[in-house]
Amino acid sequence: MTALDGDGGTADTSGTPGTTVAVRRGGAHWITFFGIAAAVWILDQLAKAWLVGQLSPGEVMNVVGDLVRLIYSQNSGALFGLFRDNAVIFGIVSLAVIGLIVAYHGRAGRSQYLSIALGLLLGGALGNVTDRLRLGYVVDFVDIGVGDFRWYTFNVADAAISLAIVMLIGAAFIPAIGRLVERQSDG
């Protein structure tokens, strides 16, 4: 009997030639992937709802003096405010990207590390596309810097996307990182 393993390969399990039985030995970590994505999306939307309830557009709230502030910003463009007033187009493109993230996760194998990184990426993408399609802009609010030297204003979804990108780059340059938390085979 020949069994198909989780990587699409086969293994003889009984010594009887010509018999094939599908045996799945783990796969993508879907619960981790969707759980992290949902947590990021919920946290992002709750943070934005709280902020919109507290501040008017452009209003600033100091959190740690001038170093960390909250400012209600409406970003109708893409990354770092580029290409303003194209939120609907970016929303449609984001939906395609979301599909690609889910498809890639399904092909990524048994790496818990990749499931976490891709879950962060998916949650961030969902958080921002929700704003784009619902509001026509993304609510950004975290403002970090000193005096006139400020970083781009961002939100929880952006932070999750940035962390995911750092994790994916790390796995690309050091492949062993992606295998640190791989699911063990069932035998």
Tell me about the largest β-sheet: 4 strands, antiparallel
What's the number of extended β-strand segments?
7
- Note the overall shape: globular
Instruction: Order the strands across the largest sheet as they lie in space.
Output: 4-5-6-7
Low-pLDDT segments, ≥5 res: 1-13, 19-25, 183-187
Structural class estimated from helices and strands: alpha+beta
Give the N-terminus to C-terminus distance in angstroms. 16 Å
Strand content: 15-25%
Write the layout of secondary structure elements.
Layout: E1 2-4, E2 10-12, E3 20-22, H1 30-54, E4 60-64, E5 68-75, H2 87-107, H3 112-135, E6 138-146, E7 149-150, H4 156-173, H5 175-178
Helix pairs in contact: 1-3, 2-3, 3-4
Walk me through this protein's architecture.
The structure is a single chain. The protein is of the alpha+beta class and 187 residues long. The chain has one domain (27-178). Helix content is 49%, strand content 18%. It is built from five helices and seven strands. The chain has a four-stranded antiparallel sheet with strand order 4-5-6-7. A three-stranded mixed sheet has the order 2-1-3, with no helix packed on it. Helix 1 (30-54) runs parallel beside helix 3 and helix 2 (87-107) packs antiparallel against helix 3. The two termini are 16 Å apart.
